[in-house]
Amino acid sequence: MRSTVHALWIATVPLSILIVLLGTSLTIAATTFDYQTTKIDPNNLSFYEPSITAESYPQTSATQVRNVIFCIGDGMGINQVTLAGSTVAGPGGKLYLERLPVTGLVRTYSTDSRVTDSAAAGTALACGVKTKNGMIGMTPDEQAYCSILETAKAKGMATGLVVTCTMSHATPASFGSHVKSRKLEPAIAEQLIDNRINVLFGGGRKYFLPQSDPNSGRKDDIDLIARAQTAGYTYVRTASELAKADDSHVLGLFQLDALTTGASEPSLAKLTRKAIRVLKRANLESIDGRYGFFLMIEGSQIDWECHANKANGAIRQTLLFDQAVEAAVDFALKDGHTLVVVTADHETGGMTLIGGGNEDKGDAELAVKWSTKGHSGTPVGVWALGPGATRFAGIQDNTEIPRKIAQLLDIRPFPQQKK
User: Fold this and answer.
1) Calpha distance 98→82 (Å, rounded)
2) Tens-place pLDDT, residues 56-96
3) Torsion region of 339: left, alpha or beta (phi above 0 gives left; psi -120 to 50 gives alpha)
4) Greatest CA span in the chain, whole angstroms?
5) pTM for the complete prediction?
6) Which residues are catalytic?
7) Domain spans of the chain?
8) How far apart are the C-alpha atoms of 157 and 256, rounded to whole Å?
9) According to CATH, what is the number of the domain 2-38+66-408?
10) What is the pLDDT of residues 222-279, one digit of tens each?
11) CA 161 to CA 203: how far, in whole Å?
């Protein structure tokens, strides 16, 4: 790993400087790492084609937001972005997400810790309220709040969640469920189906299977796949089945547990493109065809590689996520009325980029240092493109992100208690 990382050059960006200034006084969490990282070769980055330009994408002249694509890189700090970009494009290159024309910073603390977990951060990004680490879709007093996805659906918009973790993991759970603990994945899976979210793409099939199935992760006889099919979902398990799916509700569970992010599965970018097509179809099948869609995309396993302090794995997962951002932006630029917001729930690993060579001779190479195997309290970046994008500039709290999206969609009130 060191030979690959040392060959990189530091890419200095203004946000990196702000991160150092804002993040130095925050404490680091000693979270126990219990995720399995992928066994795919992290050094093979041939799947990724860097942008041929570092120029910012153009801003739209439109003012009305019809669709929202909300991209979350789990554990993706500014240094993870800089490292990945430097690897594939050199010190002056940019990832696709870095070409979004509006940038800002986001603070991520929870109600009971300066260092958030994914449940509290996901709740903040989805529901616009703070909560304790571990809680999903509700405040510390257990008052449930509607997510921006749920309020968009109530407005008549099509909705979707696309992830590389289990569908019932903390971030997707925050957009489609309300539970006291993120560990209640079987209950979360039930709520995702009952919420009639148009697109559910990810892993975690075991939480949808009844306990009679030897692969089940449930302790009851509920068959959520059968329930979904009865409710009108097309159920798919493979890339070929996904390609044939042509309905307004699609449940795609491509692994029993998390995705491998390997070639045998549809990539996050392909899942994103398919999700957009499904959501557009759902719009056409609505009563008057005029409503848009809300889609959340998560690069879930950046976090896992950083928990394991695997720099090359973090690079690979960040690039897979960046491909999905590129797919979202491609659609948004053609559509003209789509807002794309890219951020992270928190930073993981306390990644620091330092000189690994002879700085006095001007050949300072890039090396990675980790300060923890848990999360850190440093602010994360936010990037935006499309109508209303300028609202996401500057320093803000994570709860402000969905509140601003709600304002642009004319969803009021928000935050909104769940009845």
Assistant:
1) 9
2) 999 988 889 999 999 999 999 999 999 999 999 998 899 99
3) beta
4) 68
5) 0.92
6) 118
7) 2-38+66-408
8) 30
9) 3.40.720.10
10) 999 999 999 999 999 999 999 999 999 999 999 999 999 999 999 999 999 999 999 9
11) 12
